[in-house]
């Protein structure tokens, strides 16, 4: 396993930042780590990087405990931290040359600059870079030495659409190379487009872990049901709104759109319609977005 967390807990006095988190990330997997601000994402990442020591539980990277052997763990890692610092007067090329020397790697700085899309700015001082350019440079540094595990903390901040597409392409290429990619983000559409699995943190707890497809089918996640009828019965909207779990109803010609709070409402909607004189011609279930899944699972609660 690239990452293994077992009952990981971190407390700061009475404040619980991470509580009893267990998960695994396999080699060759892209894992999205989601959660609102203060959910415990960065604390978990900092424990993996041995910037913070856990109160209880343990973390390992390819079987290596970063507390016991941080150098061995970091040799397998490429990291883009949310708080990555740069030397303002040094150029992007100089930053990469330093990273290559520190890792004793043989990467070509120019090739890395081209890969992340800032080759034309390679000899400019980083102090004049935009946030998006700094994110690209940080990603290039994380790629030095072809790491087995790439950890990215909010890597999409400041990226324009072209930069986000470059990011997605690079992550796919690294996954195809066999690297594991673990990244935190709150930009749902980007996570949805690239991740093999997703973990959702809230209030220090890991509240859901699965593929995006499986999370969309969780019974508590709202969705829209579209039912095509030969004719729409009178007062059917009022009747449907009386059902438990039905939140909204609209009509468009012969199509009923029914917003359901959870999957259990679907059968009741169909049963009610079957009891009318209308014939059901087609039934389609709209797929909830990852953002809807996130909003349903990341419900605020106290950390015991």
TrEMBL record:
One of its GO terms (molecular function) is ATP hydrolysis activity. CDD domains: ABC_DR_subfamily_A. Residues 3-228 form the ABC transporter domain. InterPro entries: AAA+_ATPase, ABC_transporter-like_ATP-bd, ABC_transporter-like_CS, P-loop_NTPase. The keyword ATP-binding applies. The keyword Ion transport does not apply. Keywords: ATP-binding, Nucleotide-binding, Transport. Belongs to the ABC transporter superfamily. This is ABC transporter ATP-binding protein. It comes from Haloferax mediterranei (strain ATCC 33500 / DSM 1411 / JCM 8866 / NBRC 14739 / NCIMB 2177 / R-4). The lineage of its organism: Archaea, Methanobacteriati, Methanobacteriota, Stenosarchaea group, Halobacteria.
